[in-house]
Amino acid sequence: MPVISAGYIGPSLTPNRHALWEEEELPLNVDELVNEVMGQPMRRAGRFIKMVACGGLTCLQSVTLDYLRGKRTGIFLASGLGNVDEILPFITEVFKHGGGFPSPNQFANSVSNAAAFVLAKICNVTGTVLTVSQEELSFESALWLAQSYLECGDIDLALVGGCDIFTPTVEEYRERLNLCCRSTRPLPMGEGSSWLLLGRNEKRGLGHIFAVDFADGKVGSESLLENARTVFQDHCPSGGSLKKIFLPGFRIKADELNFWQQKGWAIDDYLPCCGIHSTAAAFGVARVFREIPGAFFIHRNAQVSGRQAAIFGATKQP
Amino acid sequence: MNDGEIYVRGWGAVTSLGWSAAEAARRLIAGEVAPAGACVSSHLVNRDFKAFEVAYNGNPLDKAMAMLWSALDEAFAMARLSADEIAESSLFVGTTGGLFIRNEYEFTESVRKNPGKDAPPISCRNRGPGEVADLIAGQYGIRGMAMTFSMACVSSSHALVVAADLLRRGKIRRAVIVGFEPLLNMTLHGFASLLLFDYDQCRPFCVRRAGMQIGEGAGVILLDRGKSFSSKYRICGGHQYNDIKSMTSAGIDGVTVSDVVQHSLNAARVSADDVVAIKAHGTGTRDNDLSEGRGLMKCFREKLPPVVSLKGAIGHTLGAAGAVETALWLSCCEEGVIPRSFGFSQTDPEIGFAPLQQNIAARNGAYLFTFFGFGGTCSSYLMIKE
Fold it and tell me: Are both A164 and A70 inside the same structural domain?
C-alpha cells in the first residue's frame, strides 16, 4: 500500500515535530493546536474529538482535502481506550450524591465513533467509516482492515489513524493500559493522534506499507526476522542500500532490542517522543515515514496475553 | 449456492426473554413478553428507569460475564465446532460499554460497604472496548484476527457486515461475531439526558411512541464460507454507510434509509418484491422511526413486506443489537414463525404502516435487517432462508 502522506501529533501538541514535554504537565491545552490546524475553534467538541480531527487534518496537510474529492475514501479510526476524557466527568455526575446533572453534550461526545463522524464530516467522507479498538494492537487492526478494503477495490484511499489521550491520574491511566513493570519498558505515559493516508496505485508519496501480520505469543524474534527477510526480498529486491530499522512498541523488552541490534538493525525508539499510549504505534510509523527516508522498517508490539503484531514497510529513498 | 457464499453456522443470545436464543424465541412466539420493569441490579442508582433486564441471582459483573459465555456456548454448541476450528476463527466484537460495568459495580459496592462516608471518585479501570475480545480469545483459544467495533448502536451489525466482507475476500477462515452490552448507569442516564428515553413503554412505529427503552444482551453469530452441516441461512447484501448530514438522525425524509436498503438489495441481487419480512431497527424514538418508516415506504412502496421491531420485546441492546436481534430472529425462523412486533397500538400517519401485529409463517426467502446508530452510522444486510 503506498503511503501518500503521514502526520503525527504527540503529547507536546506540535504537529509533525518533536518538542520537549513532561508527563506531570499532561494533558496540555489543545485549543491552540485546534486553531493552528483547523483555523477555528471547535467549541462543543471534547478533547478526544479535537485530537482526532487535528491528527487527521495534519496528515492531509501536504495533499489538502481536495485530494480526496471524487475518490472513495475510507476512514479507519483506532483507539484503545476511546473517549475516557468525556466518560469520566459524565459518570461522575450520574453518581453524584443527591443527583447530578449529566450533560447530554458530554454523553454524545463520549460515544467513540462521534470523533470519526466529525472527521468524516470535515473530509466529506460518506462511505466506510469504522472505529476500531483492540487495546495496544488497535492501530495495527485498523491498518490491516484498511489494507483489505484497499486490496479488494472497495475504496481508493484510506485515512488510517490512532488516537488515545492522556486522562489523569497517571496511576489509573497505567492501569487502564494493563501496565506493570514486567510488561513494558520504563517510559512516561503520553498521548497522540497520528495518521497515514494510504492509496492503491499512487506513485507519489512517502513509501509503502507492505504487510501487517498478527501472531500468537509463540512467534519469536528469529521467526519475525525471517519474515522480514522474505518481505524485504519480495518488495525491495534492489533495496540493498536501505537502512534497516526496528521500531519497538511499548511492550517490547530491552533484551529484544539487543537481539535486533546484534542482527544489524538500528533501533528507532520513538516512545520518548510520544509516551506510552494504546495507539503509540501510529505515532512511530507516521514519524518514520516523515523523518527517516530510505529505510526498511518493522514495527512490533504485543498484548499482555501474548498476541502480537508486526508492521512491515519502507520509506522512500531521499 | 457455492463456496464463496457466506452462511450462518450457529448463533446464540441472552436477552431479557431468556438465557438462550432458542428459549427467547419460544417466549416471543408465545407472547410471553413482559414490559420493561424498574431496574433491580444492585449497581443501578436510579430506580425510575424501566429497562429490559436479564434475570440473574448474583452481582451484575458476574451476570455480564455469564451472559457473554452463555451466548458463545450456545453458538459453538449449535455449530459443533471443534477446538481446532474455533482456534482458526477470527473474532469481531461489537460493544460500546465493554466492561465499563466493572467500574460502576465496584463504585456502588464501595459506597454500599462504607455507609456514612463520602463517596470516593469513580475510577475508570477497564481497558477499553477491546478488553472483551481479548477475554473471549483467551477463554476459547481463538487465534485468528480479533478486533472490536465501538460504534454505538451499529457496533455488532457493522462487525457482522465487515466479517462477511472479509470472509468473502478470503482474508479470514471463519468469523465469530459477538454483540455485548450489559445494562449501565452511563447509558440509562445518557439517553435520558438526550430526552430519548420513554419512561413508560417502548412503542416502535406507534404514533404514541416517545423514546427508547434499553435492554441488556449478548449475542453471537458464527459465519463460515460455504454451506456445511445443516446451515440454511445465507448472508448477503451487507452494507455499512456513514451519513455525515447529522450525528443523531438518519434524516427524517427517509432518503438515507431508502438508499441504504436499496444498496443492500442491489448488492444481494434481490428484488424488493422478494423480501419476505423486515427486521427493522425500530427504536421507538420519534426521529428514528420516522426516518426508517419513511425510508422503507419509499423503497418498497405499496409492496412493503411485514415489518417487525424486536425492541418492544427485549429493549434496545445498543451495540449488541445487531448480533442479538439477528440471533433471536433466526431462532424464530427455526420455529417456523416471524414474531409480531410488541408495543404498538396506533399507526402514525407520518409513517403510514403498522408493524406486524400477529405471528406469521416464516417461509423460505429473503429477510432484511436494518440498523441505524449515533454518528450517522447505518448497516443493513439480508439473510436468505434456503
Answer: yes
Rounded distance between C-alpha atoms, residue B267 and residue B325, angstroms: 22
> Contact A91/B122, CB-based, under 8 Å?
yes
Handedness of CA B320, B322, B325, B329 (dihedral sign): negative
Total structural domains within chain A: 2
- Ranges of residues in chain A with a pLDDT under 70 are 98, 181, 239
Distance (Å, rounded) from C-alpha A193 to C-alpha A49?
10
Segment B81-93, tens digit of pLDDT: 999 999 999 999 9
Spell A25-49 as b/e; 16+ CB within 10 A means b.
Answer: ebbbebeebbeebeeeebeebbbbb
Q: Which of A49, A128, A134 to mutate to test the interface with B (most CBs of B within 10 A)?
A: A134
Q: Are A42 and A34 in contact (CB under 8 A)?
A: yes
Same domain? For A226 and A93 the reply is: no
Cis before residue A14, ω within 30 degrees of 0? no
CB B70 within 8 A of CB B19: yes
Domains of chain B and CATH, by start: 7-385 (3.40.47.10)
Query: Is residue B191 within 8 Å of residue B293, measured between CB atoms?
Result: no
In CATH, what number is assigned to the domain containing residue A42? 3.40.47.10
For A85-234, where are the E strands, in sequence order? Answer: 129-133, 157-164, 192-198, 207-215
**Residues 6 or more apart from B261 whose CB is under 8 A from it?**
B295, B296, B299, B368, B370, B380
Task: Determine the length of chain A.
Answer: 318
Angle, to 10 degrees, between the axis of helix B255-268 and the axis of helix B286-300? 50
Q: How many CB pairs under 8 A join A and B?
A: 173
* Shared-domain flag, residues A63 and A185: yes
Can you tell me the distance from the alpha carbon of A144 to that of A196, in angstroms, rounded to the nearest whole number?
13
Which 247-306 residues of chain B touch chain A by CB within 8 A? 247-248
Q: How confident is the model at residue B76 (pLDDT cuts 50, 70, 90)?
A: very high
| pLDDT tens digits, B215-274 | 999 999 999 998 776 789 999 999 999 999 888 878 889 999 999 999 999 999 999 999
A272 and A190 share a domain?
no
Q: How far away is chain A from the Cα of B243, in angstroms, using its nearest Cα? A: 6
The predicted-structure confidence for A203-259, as pLDDT tens digits, reads as follows: 889 999 999 999 987 778 999 999 999 998 888 877 678 899 999 999 998 889 999
Please indicate, yes or no, whether residues A168 and A109 belong to a single structural domain of this protein.
yes
User: CA distances (Å), B305 to each of B98, B358, B367, in order?
Assistant: 35, 14, 10
Q: Which residues constitute the domain of residue A278?
A: 207-315
E strand intervals along chain B:
6-14, 37-38, 50-51, 90-94, 146-149, 174-181, 217-225, 233-242, 275-280, 307-309, 337-338, 360-361, 365-373, 377-385
Q: Does ipTM surpass 0.90 in this model? A: yes
CA A33 to CA A313: how far, in whole Å?
29
Query: Which residue, A163, A198, A233, sits at the end of a domain?
Result: A198
Residues of A within 8 A of B112 (CB-CB) are none
Residue A74 C-alpha cell reads as: 475510507
pLDDT, position B3: 54
